[in-house]
Write a structure and sequence with these properties.
heterotrimer; A mainly alpha; B alpha/beta; C mainly alpha; A: mainly alpha; two-stranded antiparallel ribbon; 4 strands; 3% strand; C: 11 helices; globular
């Protein structure tokens, strides 16, 4: 049995002084961003980075339980559309629509997940692909969703009244309020995910992530844990979807198609799928900011994206963070991908149909 | 002496291939039963079926007077059957203590919310389980290695850790798949002693092994499999002198 | 609906269904043996069509020669793809899926850039119609269906009777055990990929006289996915049944409600079916393979 070697030491998620300082500095920078960044366009980019980072985090969260989901954008869309409809048809305030649409997305996640999670491995992947495609058609076909043209004029969040001060307005011009709201939502999701990853509640999840068969033999109900993960991932995506709807104030079904999910995957892999929270942030940041800086031509996009994907998995399977090994990771990050492979391998069909073998 | 596990007419086909064929087996409470046979005889498949990793094509498995045929692995674990896998299946990337701790998954009584909020009842339970884990590690001689990464352990210790994890689940029946394979004589003896001590604590054990000396030494009874069928069953001396058994082995591996 | 119309839809559906069967079989082969969820599969289908079009229209080669060349070319291309990309990431399922998606985007966009977006047609090979009870089948379609059937039978023989086929089946079952019996897994994976992609190219090529070719043809992958789910992953017989069923159903669906809604209905139906029968129509209920 190959040993990993003693140079990789396990770094428990204990807050050490170094980490604490780093987090504080990061927090300060994040809060000061609207003063540091002047251009509304750059603010927009940062907001999108936040949204995409969360989506990528949900992808990795599911990945850690052995599920490769291509329906990330679909649930993002469900959150967005349900929030828009709640606000526009039922005249609900954004502040009500946000939690409601998150819950709705979670419920739909439960229903869909209940069927899909029972079939782990390739079947799950194929089903999420089909679901992702079907959802886009649902958004496009039925008039209640505005058809392929989409919904416009979604109301912005109501201003937050403050004591003694002018209420906080959500304006698309300055985007400051939106930015802070985004930060807040991202923080909620990160804290929730962190709770699941930490040893206290996360032992079973960690076990599933490291060796599902062993976990099962210790009494872990794989289906139940995976379903819970699926619901949480869906709800988180729905949360960001609601935000997205009231930020962009218009929705088209095409924004939630499979390609969007692929981009989310790219962010996750680029950052490094061994890094559940920092990876997506890095990946989303680079993929959103760098093309802007380089002024990449948009017309050739799918070709370059395709090529980029292939090169990415061939030469950078550990992601950037894995390459830099900023933290002394427990495992060699390439093993993350290999592990996912082993999980799926456990659920592959064992043989062709009996019919063939009887012939 | 009561029967704790009964396998009735068990068959498992993979496509057209019979891995296990009409197998009948009884395991007596608190005994150590050895399961031997050439490679491919169906021993691991039998363990997989009993452990709930896949259902049999036909036949029944009865545990503690309860029909457990077709139940999923985690349900079977909850019922008290624990399994050590052939390869060193451990949680390699975490510490020895954490490995054993994970074995206590089924023992948690406080709800997930209390644990999330770090309430005192949850803290107490954590501490209690931690102590029990240390006890097991002490019993097996691994307590000094508690913070070591499982992957860094030598092979012999890894197998012992696997047994520790299984013990943490408080099993009634323990299925050991080749526990001493790859160990040196010293480690092998340690494992034999440990297995005996586990049995003395009231756990029934079924062992699959190729090391004949160990099997003869350790087991109360032995069952022999070949091509998915049971070809002999009885006391070690009876098996040793059984012509069919010798043939089966000479034909394949030349005996050990 | 009057009978001739129903019959016509059924026949159209069956002929399209044959294409699905071919594709699902090849897809299953790649899925079972090298265990790649080959999302770019539809692009090889498209490629086969374009190659055939090019060979017959530009180089004016006879149809059957072009058919063989197209099949060969896509097969070889599949093999090259395997060697260059998938062999290196073997076992890393996420990486393989992502690479397959990347390849799909590359090939789809590339074809669009080179050939433009309009569909291209080609003149019919055989003229004439067979009319049975008010249902019209062009001779062309009938011939193509027969050829497709022949290929299917050939595939079956390949898998059941030849050593290569047995190797592929053994490897799909358990690669490690197969290795113990002397099967070279890399070579087997390569061959499975070649055969699978050749099938896709073949399907695309025989389709060309009947339907036009366009860069968007690759999207057929998603229907193939549904076929595979319906018939059971890895099940050849399931692919046949599911392919034909889906072909006919889509034919009716296209006629009555249009593509988008049809997709939604399919997904819903298949989801419900999977709920009750996790293995699809003919697959077994999910079994876990011990690592």
């Amino acid at each position: 049995m190959e040993k990993l070697g003693k140079k990789y030491r396990f770094n428990q998620i204990n807050i050490r002084s170094g980490k604490l300082i780093g987090l504080v500095v990061l927090g300060v920078i994040l809060v000061l961003v609207p003063w540091l960044v002047r251009s509304p366009y750059h603010m927009h980019l940062l907001i999108m980075v936040g949204i995409y980072a969360v989506l990528a985090m949900t992808f990795i969260f599911l990945l850690r339980t052995g599920l490769i989901s291509l329906a990330i954008a679909a649930f993002w869309g469900i959150g967005a559309y349900s929030s828009a409809l709640l606000a526009m048809r039922l005249d609900l305030s954004f502040w009500l629509a946000l939690p409601l649409s998150t819950i709705i997305t979670g419920i739909i996640g439960f229903c869909i997940g209940y069927i899909l999670v029972r079939n782990p491995g390739f079947a799950f992947i194929i089903l999420t692909i089909s679901f992702g495609m079907a959802i886009v058609h649902v958004f496009g076909t039925f008039d209640v969703f505005g058809g392929y043209v989409g919904i416009t004029r979604i109301p912005a969040p109501d201003p937050i009244p403050l004591p003694f001060l002018a209420p906080i307005e959500f304006s698309r011009v300055s985007k400051t309020a939106y930015y802070y709201l985004m930060l807040f939502l991202v923080l909620i999701v990160v804290l929730a995910l962190y709770a699941f990853y930490s040893a206290w509640t996360g032992r079973a999840w960690r076990a599933i992530g490291l060796s599902p068969r062993l976990a099962e033999s210790l009494g872990v109900n794989l289906f139940r844990y995976r379903l819970v993960a699926f619901v949480i991932a869906s709800a988180a995506a729905g949360l960001m979807g609601s935000f997205y709807a009231h930020y962009m104030q218009s929705l088209v079904p095409g924004a939630f198609d499979l390609f969007k999910t692929i981009y989310v995957h790219i962010y996750a892999i680029l950052g490094g799928i061994g890094f559940a929270i920092s990876g997506p942030v890095i990946g989303a940041f680079i993929m959103t900011i760098v093309p802007e800086l380089l002024r990449v031509v948009k017309e050739f996009e799918p070709i370059f994206t395709g090529l980029f994907l292939i090169l990415l998995v061939l030469f950078l399977p550990n992601g950037l963070l894995g390459l830099l090994s900023l933290r002394q990771r427990v495992e060699r990050p390439s093993e993350s991908i290999a592990r996912v492979g082993r999980w799926i391998r456990a659920y592959l069909p064992t043989s062709r149909s009996e019919h063939e073998n009887r012939k | 002496m009561s029967t704790i596990l009964e396998v009735k007419q068990l068959s498992k086909y993979f496509g057209g291939l019979a891995a296990v064929s009409e197998l009948d087996l009884s395991v007596v409470d608190s005994e150590i039963l050895g399961l031997i046979g050439p490679n491919g005889a169906g021993k691991t498949t039998l363990f997989n079926v009993i452990g709930g990793f896949f259902p049999p094509t036909s036949g029944k498995v009865i545990f503690d007077s309860r029909d457990i045929t077709g139940l999923k692995a985690h349900r079977i674990a909850h019922l008290g059957i624990s399994r050590i896998f052939q390869a060193s299946t451990l949680f390699m990337e975490i510490s020895v203590l954490d490995n054993v701790f994970t074995g206590y998954h089924m023992s948690y009584k406080t709800s997930i919310w209390k644990r999330l909020l770090r309430m005192p009842s949850a803290l107490n339970e954590e501490e209690m389980l931690r102590q029990r884990a240390m006890e097991i590690l002490g019993f097996m001689g691994l307590e000094s290695l508690k913070d070591e990464l499982a992957a860094n352990l030598p092979h012999g210790h890894q197998r012992i850790l696997g047994v520790c994890m299984a013990l943490a689940t408080n099993p009634k029946l323990l299925l050991l798949d080749e526990p001493v394979t790859g160990m040196n004589p010293e480690e092998t003896q340690t494992m034999i002693d440990l297995i005996r001590q586990i049995r003395d604590r009231g756990v029934t054990i079924v062992v699959v092994e190729h090391n004949m000396r160990v099997v003869m030494n350790l087991c109360d009874r032995i069952a022999v499999l070949n091509y998915g069928r049971k070809i002999a069953e009885g006391l070690p001396e009876e098996i040793r002198d059984n012509k069919e058994v010798v043939e089966a082995y000479l034909g394949k591996e030349g005996g050990r | 609906m009057e009978l001739p119309l129903v019959g016509q839809l059924v026949v159209n559906g069956l002929s399209m269904g044959m294409v699905y069967v071919l594709l699902a079989s090849g897809f299953n082969l790649i899925l079972s043996t090298p265990k790649i969820l080959f999302i770019a599969y539809g692009e090889f289908y498209m490629l086969g069509a374009y190659i055939l079009w090019g060979l017959t229209q530009e180089l004016e080669l006879p149809f059957f020669v072009a058919l063989c060349l197209a099949t060969l070319a896509t097969g070889i291309l599949g093999g090259i793809t395997y060697r260059l990309i998938f062999q290196r990431i073997e076992g890393h399922f996420l990486a393989m899926i992502v690479a397959a998606i990347g390849l799909m985007m590359l090939m789809a966009q590339g074809t669009m850039l080179v050939f433009g977006t309009e569909a291209r047609g080609m003149p019919s090979l055989f003229t004439g119609m067979i009319i049975v009870g008010g249902i019209r089948i062009s001779v062309e379609r009938a011939v193509l269906i027969i050829i497709a059937l022949a290929v299917l039978v050939g595939l079956h023989l390949l898998l059941q009777r030849t050593n290569i086929g047995r190797a592929m089946r053994a490897v799909s079952f358990n690669a490690d055990v197969a290795a113990l019996q002397g099967v070279n897994s890399n070579r087997t994976y390569l061959l499975a990929m070649v055969v699978g992609c050749a099938l896709a190219g073949f399907a695309g090529a025989i389709m060309t006289p009947v339907f036009a070719v366009s860069p968007g043809m690759g999207a057929i992958t998603f229907i193939v996915l549904l076929v595979v789910m319906l018939g059971g992953i890895g099940s050849m017989l399931g692919a046949i049944v599911a392919g034909l069923v889906l072909g006919v159903t889509l034919s009716f669906g296209q006629y009555s409600v249009g593509g988008g809604v049809a997709q939604i209905i399919f997904f819903a139906v298949i989801a419900i079916l999977i709920f009750f029968r996790p293995g699809g129509l003919l697959g077994k209920a999910r079994e876990e393979v011990p690592l």
